[in-house]
Amino acid sequence: MRLFFVIIFLTSSLSCSQSDDPKLFFDKGQYEKAYALWQPLANNGDLVAQNYIGIHYYLGLGIERNLGLANKWFKRAALGGFSDAQYNLGIMYENGEHIKQDFIIASMWFYVASKNGSSNAKKRIEGLLNDDKLFPNQYNHAKNLAKKYLNIEN
User: Most exposed: 2, 16, 61, 66, by fewest CB within 10 Å?
Assistant: First the structure.
């Protein structure tokens, strides 16, 4: 009998905590609910939440697509050191979405993201170099920019 109550308690407490998890709603495709839960976290400086708010705006998930706001939220999280946001910001610069296309700035963000553990960012840099969108001296300039403005080592 006691085991039954313990199981009921654990089940109810788990379901309560999951109901406030924005990633759970996002993964289920319930974007409006996820956005509503991410927003206060993002406003309070949560880097993961800021990146997800950026994704919502970038793709128009649960809200109207707005590349300007996507850029704003990606940049907040990127400057905070979140590699996924750094990668996403690099994509925006690479594609020239809402901002002037700039392969050097894109590679700067990809470089920073790769230094923070993003393997996708390393592949993006290789793609830019292999497709002659970025030359080695430009990539070196991008790395110097990253080191200078973002305090990145090596």
Answer: 2
Compute CA distances 65 → 17, 57, 62, 70, 153, whole Å. 29, 5, 9, 8, 36
Q: Which of 29, 58, 80 is the last residue of a domain?
A: 80
pTM of the full structure: 0.83
Distance separating alpha carbons of residues 148 and 11, to the nearest angstrom = 51
For residue 132, which amino acid is it?
A: D
- Inside any domain, residue 108: yes
For residues 90 and 108, what is the distance between their CA atoms, to the nearest angstrom? 8
DSSP state, residue 63: S
Q: Which residues, 6 or more positions from 112, have their beta carbon under 8 angstroms from its beta carbon?
A: 78, 83, 86, 121, 146, 150, 152
**Together in a domain, 26 and 70:** yes
Distant-in-sequence, close-in-space partners of 17: CB < 8 Å, separation ≥ 6: none
Residues of the chain under the 70 pLDDT cut: 1-18, 152-154
Contact 42, 49 (CB under 8 A): yes
**Long-range residue pairs from 99-102, CB within 8 A, at least 24 positions apart, any chain:** 99/71
Residue 150's pLDDT is 72
